[in-house]
Design a protein that fits this description.
Heat Shock Protein 90; 3 domains; 8 helices
Length: 419
Amino acid sequence: MVSLSELFLLDLGAFMRLDIMAWVLGVPVVIVAVVLLVVQQRQSRRLQEDLNQLSKIKRHTIEYELVLKTMKMCVWRIDVPSQTVTFESDYRDSFDTVVFPPETGLDVLGETIAPAYVDNINKNMKDLLEGKIEQYHVQYEVMIPHSDRTYWEESYATVDKRDLAGNPLTVVGTSQRIDKQKEIERDLIDARNHAEESDRLKSAFLANISHEIRTPLNAIVGFSEVLSMTQTDEEREQLIGLIRENNAQLLRLFDDMVHMSKLEAGGETIRKNRFDLRPLLEEIMQRYTEKIDGRRVKLQLMQSEDNPKPFTDRERLSEIINQYVNNAVKFTSDGSITLGYEQKDNMLRIWVNDTGKGIPEDRCDDRLFERFVKIDEFVPGTGLGLSICRSMALSLGGKVGVQSSLGVGSKFWVDIPVE
């Protein structure tokens, strides 16, 4: 018969054995749980890092695409072993831009480059693909297929991957249309050239004007002083004639300068009306008849039954013809000076033909109508007359021209619209 105390001791021992077994079995479980918890936390952190990295990559891609779109650029990649190029992202202006399919051969790409730039691009590309240089930068013109138009493009490229021997495997690059940039460059160059030309013309103007003004002024002052010392009426009349001649030359000089200034400033209003041409030519002939030696030079108007009635600015047309006749009088010492006209379609050509000293044929071009251009430096004049003629003709919708042979004579003409 088991006593109560023995039974209590027996239960206590069994309980202690169960507790020890629980501890023995529970400790590994706890350890395993802790390890799993640590592993889970590490995986959670790694997952979070991966998510952050993906977010950065996505954000980087968005920024990358945004830059390409803003700059209107394209990205391309060259596979060096196969010598092919693939355009991955293209945000260039689509109008007339040459686009290639994936894995296009480099030789096909080169066929669109303007011939003037092919050699330079081929050399740079060859050096880049062979690993001789790390990167390149070129500007060139691209020819639009089936058209005579071109556009400007700028490209950058660099080596992306290499093999174990260091040879390039892939090359990445960007291209961008730079038509506006080139247009700005051209405008800046034109502005610089215009400024340089203006400076040159200013210097030429001062040099010419100072000489041309001084010459008649010296004559006027000198002859005026001598006038009081003349003994006979014949001498006095001769000096007065010389003074009048130099006065007229000086007035003509200032008239030319005023005309040129007004034309450049746009200060003269064009007043068009319809008038008879022949009376205008007769007035001009009468004006210059007194200035020539009628025994050696004959000033004549071409005989014609036609009397055109152009609709244009009479004063400007008169100024052009006056300039032509004045030049003919200066350069013709004998022979004839003839005024004439002819109408072809809607244009009326008025010409002045002389038998003067003439102009070399290689100088009978647009340069003759530039400012301060003089064929003979020993003949008085500012070199502004023909330039004034061209400016006035252009303002009337017409044009000027010349035909001449040295020692034979010259024919200056102006074409103006009849209507």
